[in-house]
Amino acid sequence: MKTILVMALLCAFAAPVFGALTDIDLDKIHLIIQEEIKPIKADIVTLKTDVAVVKAEVTHLKETVNNGFGDVQKNFDRLNNIIIACIGIPLAILAIGATIWGILANRRSRKDETLEKQIETLTQEIETLKQQRIASP
Known about the structure:
Blueprint: H1 2-18, H2 23-135
């Protein structure tokens, strides 16, 4: 019984030795792997070309967007200038008008003051003349 058991153990250890791969087996495996890799390589090449096309399109889109933003910025600048002109010109006209009105109003007030002084002096002279006439009839 012991001999049978020892023989069985020896066969169990020897079994992996019979399962070792030979060079012919390795060459067959290598050919199979090469055949399986060919479509994958072709897919990788097409993916690389697709990625290159997408990169080119993205670059073109970036350039287009940047140009569009440049055009929008120019339009905003132009509109800002128009708005400033639409606000600034009337304000300038109002400022000039207010200045001229202030100058004219100041001149009128000086004329009014001189006229009031003349009226006061004339009324005083009239009063003195009335007093003299009343005193010496």
